[in-house]
User: Which sequence fits this backbone?
């Protein structure tokens, strides 16, 4: 038996002022594209930028160097698209358990991405080529601002996944509930391992972030297809 994603039932009065399904579908399409776009652009750079090693350098480090503008643009564009796409999630989840906070948290993650693009972390660990090995003796304020923005993004994504887990659990959609919690836990553990200085922590963080991002996009696509 297949499970169909449902939006809340509307009264005739509410339906008269309800947003157009076409507009909602377009917003959900933006949500589908937003964060996976960031992942594709970031991973392409990780595979091609000279001196970059994903087991040593966070994906945020790609904002440095002569080609850093690509990752900066990637952060800002994906963040703006995430903020826009969150409105589509708000419309389809409205009136359901978790339907208020899941879209809000997705929107907050987008705002964090925009800030992460605006504030660039310091060069470190030999990237870009020519940068000193290890971490700088003193971090710039822009680097601290970038780390703060990253924390906002990660925390919001983790929370959004767990709220979606609650939403789907209440709806009796066990697979979606488990998937949501797994995605949130992947980012929680990946970020925790990176923060602890664990071996290849930047890689586990990248895996966790991309897992959560792709899951949010997957949920948005499920709802888009149901309209």
Assistant:
């Amino acid at each position: 038996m297949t499970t169909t994603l449902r939006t809340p039932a509307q009264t005739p009065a509410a339906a008269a002022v309800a947003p157009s399904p076409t507009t909602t579908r377009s917003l959900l399409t933006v949500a589908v594209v937003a964060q996976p776009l960031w992942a594709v652009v970031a991973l392409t750079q990780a595979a091609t930028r000279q001196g970059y090693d994903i087991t040593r350098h966070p994906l945020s480090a790609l904002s440095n160097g002569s080609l850093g503008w690509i990752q900066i643009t990637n952060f800002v564009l994906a963040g703006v698209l995430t903020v826009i796409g969150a409105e589509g999630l708000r419309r389809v989840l409205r009136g359901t358990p978790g339907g208020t906070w899941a879209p809000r948290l997705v929107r907050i993650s987008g705002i964090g991405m925009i800030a992460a693009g605006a504030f660039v972390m310091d060069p470190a660990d030999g990237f870009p080529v020519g940068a000193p090995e290890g971490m700088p003796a003193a971090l710039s304020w822009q680097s601290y601002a970038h780390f703060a923005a990253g924390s906002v993004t990660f925390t919001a994504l983790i929370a959004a996944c767990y709220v979606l887990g609650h939403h789907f659990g209440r709806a009796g959609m066990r697979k979606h509930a488990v998937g949501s919690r797994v995605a949130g836990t992947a980012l929680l553990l990946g970020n925790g391992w990176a923060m602890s200085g664990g071996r290849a922590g930047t890689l586990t963080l990248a895996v966790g972030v991309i897992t959560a991002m792709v899951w949010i996009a997957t949920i948005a696509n499920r709802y888009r297809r149901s309209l």
Observations:
- DSSP finds seven helices and no strands in the chain.
- Residues 22-122+136-226 form one domain.
- The helical segments are 12-16, 21-48, 68-93, 101-118, 141-170, 174-195, 201-226.
